[in-house]
C-alpha cells in the first residue's frame, strides 16, 4: 500500500480511530475511578560497616542481597502484627554501592502505610544485629536514614496517567482496526478506490434531478451540462452510433436503474441531434414513462409478446419511448425479454441510438440475453448505497457477453 493510499484510508476512517481512542481513554478512567485509593509510604535505611575495610565492604554487599527475602519473611511470620498479605504490597530496593535500602509499602490508610514501612525497617535492623556474625571488631549496622511519613495524597490510581495510556492504546488499536474496516467496507463512495478494486472505470457521482426532466426544461442548466458530460464519457468509451447504436444500461441494487437517469440522458442526446429511442426493459419495476407523463402501455410487453406497435413520441423532438407496458406474469416477462433479445439488432439499425433500461442482472437472468444482444453495457449504482460485491456479481454475469463501458455512480440531490 502506497503512502497516498494510507493517507486516503486515514482521511476516510480518522473518526473511527478517534472513537476507539476516546472509548479506551474513558474505559481507563472509569476503571481508575472504580479502584480504591492506595497510599505509598517510603522509608530509607543505611547499611554501614563499623570500619573501612575492603573485605568487610564486600561482605556487606553480599549480605544486602538477602534483605528483600528477609523483609518479605516478616509478614509471613506475623512479626510485630504485620498482615500476611503485606508481601504483595511491599517493594524493596537495595543500592549496595551506596549502602541504602528503600522500603515502600502500599495501603489504603496513609498512617498505616507509614507505620508498616517503619516497622519493617526496625525489624530488619534487629535481624541484622542478631544474625550478622561479628568477627573480632568487624560488624555491620542498619539504621534509619529517612523514616516513613504518612503520604498526603494517594499514589494510585493515577487518573491522568491511566487515561492518557488508555488513549494511546486506543490509537494503537484504532489504526489497524481502521485499515481492517476499510478493507471489509465495500460500500461504493470513492470512484478511484472502487475502480481499483473492480478493475473497471468508475465515473464520479452524478446528481439526479428527482423525477423531472431538468434537461428538457432547463437545457442550459447545470443538470443538462452534467448529462451532456455523461454522454461525452459514453462516446469516448465507444458507445453511440454508428459503430454501436445500442446501449444497455443496467442498474445495480434492489431499486434498479433510476428512470431519471435514462430519461434525462435521452433528452440530452436528442438535443444534440439525431433520433433516440428509449426502451424500458425492466418489466418488474417500470418507471421510464413517468418523467415524460406518458401512459404505461402500450409498451415493451405488448411489442414483444403481441407485436403491437408501442413507440410513443415525447415532448423532446427526436426522442421516442417504449415503456414497459402493463406488468405481465413472471413467465410472460421472461418470455418478453428473450424475444426482445432477438429483436434488438434490427431495432438498433432503425433507431439511430437505442438506449435500453435493463434490470439488475442478478435479479433477471433474461436481461443478460438483452445485454448480449446490445453488445455494450453501462452499469449504474447509487453512491454510498451500492456494494462492491453486487457490482462484482454483475460483472461476472456479463463477462464474455458484452463490452462493459464502466460504472456510473449516481446520487439524489
Question: What can you tell me about this protein's structure?
Answer:
This protein has 413 residues and is an alpha/beta fold. The chain folds into three domains: 3-35 and 157-184, no CATH class; 39-146, EIF_2_alpha (Alpha-Beta Plaits); 191-412, Rossmann fold (3-Layer(aba) Sandwich), CATH 3.40.50.300. Helix content is 47%, strand content 19%. Helix 8 (222-237) crosses helix 9, helix 10 (300-306) crosses helix 11 (330-351) and helix 11 runs parallel beside helix 12 (366-374). It is rod-shaped and about 125 Å long. It starts with a helix and ends with a strand. The model has no long low-confidence stretch (mean pLDDT 87).
List the helices and strands and how they pair.
Blueprint: H1 3-34, E1 39-49, H2 54-64, H3 67-77, E2 90-95, E3 100-107, H4 110-131, E4 140-146, H5 159-184, H6 191-198, E5 202-208, H7 214-217, H8 222-237, E6 246-251, H9 259-272, E7 276-280, H10 300-306, E8 312-313, E9 319-322, H11 330-351, E10 353-358, H12 366-374, E11 376-382, H13 388-398, E12 403-412
Parallel strand pairs: 5-12, 6-10, 6-11, 7-9, 7-10, 11-12
Antiparallel strand pairs: 1-3, 1-4, 2-3, 8-9
Helix pairs in contact: 1-5, 3-4, 8-9, 10-11, 11-12
Amino acid at each position: 500500500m502506497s503512502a497516498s493510499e494510507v493517507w486516503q484510508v486515514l482521511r476516510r476512517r480518522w473518526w473511527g480511530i478517534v472513537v476507539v481512542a476516546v472509548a479506551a481513554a474513558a474505559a481507563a478512567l472509569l476503571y481508575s475511578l472504580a479502584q480504591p485509593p492506595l497510599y505509598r509510604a517510603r522509608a530509607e535505611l543505611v547499611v554501614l560497616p563499623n570500619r573501612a575495610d575492603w573485605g568487610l565492604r564486600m561482605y556487606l554487599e553480599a549480605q544486602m542481597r538477602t534483605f528483600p527475602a528477609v523483609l518479605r519473611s516478616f509478614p509471613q511470620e506475623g512479626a510485630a502484627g504485620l498482615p500476611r498479605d503485606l508481601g504483595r504490597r511491599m517493594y524493596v530496593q537495595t543500592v549496595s554501592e551506596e549502602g541504602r535500602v528503600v522500603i515502600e509499602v502500599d495501603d489504603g490508610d496513609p498512617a498505616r502505610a507509614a507505620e508498616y514501612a517503619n516497622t519493617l525497617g526496625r525489624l530488619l535492623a534487629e535481624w541484622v544485629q542478631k544474625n550478622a556474625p561479628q568477627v573480632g571488631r568487624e560488624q555491620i549496622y542498619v539504621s534509619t536514614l529517612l523514616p516513613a511519613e504518612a503520604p498526603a495524597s494517594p499514589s494510585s490510581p493515577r487518573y491522568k496517567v491511566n487515561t492518557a495510556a488508555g488513549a494511546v492504546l486506543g490509537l494503537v488499536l484504532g489504526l489497524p482496526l481502521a485499515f481492517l474496516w476499510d478493507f471489509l467496507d465495500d460500500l461504493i463512495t470513492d470512484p478511484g478506490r472502487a475502480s481499483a478494486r473492480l478493475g473497471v472505470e468508475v465515473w464520479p457521482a452524478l446528481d439526479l434531478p428527482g423525477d423531472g426532466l431538468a434537461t428538457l426544461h432547463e437545457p442550459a442548466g447545470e443538470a443538462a451540462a452534467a448529462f451532456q458530460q455523461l454522454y461525452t464519457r459514453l462516446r469516448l468509451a465507444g458507445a453511440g452510433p454508428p459503430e454501436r447504436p445500442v446501449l444497455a444500461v443496467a442498474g445495480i441494487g434492489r431499486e434498479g436503474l433510476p428512470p431519471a437517469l435514462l430519461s434525462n440522458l435521452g433528452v440530452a442526446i436528442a438535443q444534440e441531434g439525431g433520433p433516440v429511442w428509449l426502451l424500458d426493459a425492466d418489466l418488474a419495476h417500470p418507471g421510464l414513462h413517468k418523467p415524460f407523463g406518458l401512459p404505461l402501455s402500450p409498451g415493451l410487453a405488448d411489442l414483444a409478446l403481441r407485436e403491437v406497435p408501442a413507440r410513443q413520441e415525447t415532448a423532446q423532438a427526436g426522442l421516442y419511448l417504449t415503456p414497459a407496458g402493463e406488468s405481465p406474469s413472471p413467465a410472460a416477462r421472461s418470455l418478453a425479454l428473450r424475444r426482445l433479445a432477438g429483436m434488438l439488432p434490427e431495432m438498433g439499425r432503425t433507431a439511430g441510438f437505442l438506449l435500453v433500461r435493463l434490470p439488475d442482472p442478478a435479479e433477471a437472468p433474461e436481461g443478460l440475453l438483452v445485454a448480449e444482444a446490445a453488445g455494450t453495457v453501462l452499469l449504474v449504482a447509487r453512491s454510498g448505497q451500492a456494494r462492491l460485491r453486487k457490482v462484482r456479481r454483475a460483472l461476472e454475469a456479463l463477462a464474455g457477453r458484452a463490452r462493459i463501458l464502466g460504472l456510473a455512480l449516481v446520487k439524489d440531490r
